[in-house]
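Changelog entry: the F-box associated beta-propeller type 1 domain-containing protein record was regenerated in this release. Current contents:
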Amino acid sequence: MCNGRVKADERLSDEFVFTTSPFQSSNWGSSRNECSSWKDLKLKASRGDKSLKDKVTTLFTRCGVSLHGNLYWIAFYDKTDLLYHLINFDFSSERFYTFFCDLPCGMNHPRNALVLRVFKGDRFALLKQCYKTKKIEIWVTKNKINVEDGDDVVWMNFRTLSIPNFPGLVSNEYSSSQPSYFIDDKRLVMCSCDETGHPWIYIVKENKLISKVKLNSVVDPWPVHCTYFPSLVPVPGSPREEALLQV
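Regenerated structure tokens:
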């Protein structure tokens, strides 16, 4: 961002750094070549929605999801809300919006897992696990996500899993560690930490746990983990970086 402005076609060549914290506003900075600046951002009501202007939005988790160049987080107005919702950051306007769309559920209990991920590259998936029954429900959006607004977002139940003796994906109600996961055709791959902070990989297929692996000596306890899909598409660099590559 130079002189307080950022263009949509410059998103890939700029470097953006975000820090988000529950119960606080978010800060972000960007740097490109010799220009660097930081900016405090306040949550704003959804486009044209005056009813949300005075409501206080709280981030459920610091982990956001990137889709089509925008960032999305699970949030709520009150912990007892029947339905949580998504907030988003729009790079083109440099704004956070307090409401993008409703989610198909709320939390009900702090030990429930509730995780948003990208599905099929252009949709959302939401995983929830009940800490009592250990039942896992997964919803996906029916249509591709329109980054302009979430008015046409429709959630549908994708899969419900009830696996005997399956562990809880959130170790305790004070843990800030939510599981990560991805859906690979008929398989669901999840990573979560047990009560001692050691991560486990679980692979589920057709309502059966087909594999579980404890990552004992690979990482330290309570690691930060996320889903990553390698891409062969190169990310454009700055003119200076590309000039150096040609030398």
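The CA atoms of residues 6 and 94 lie 8 Å apart.
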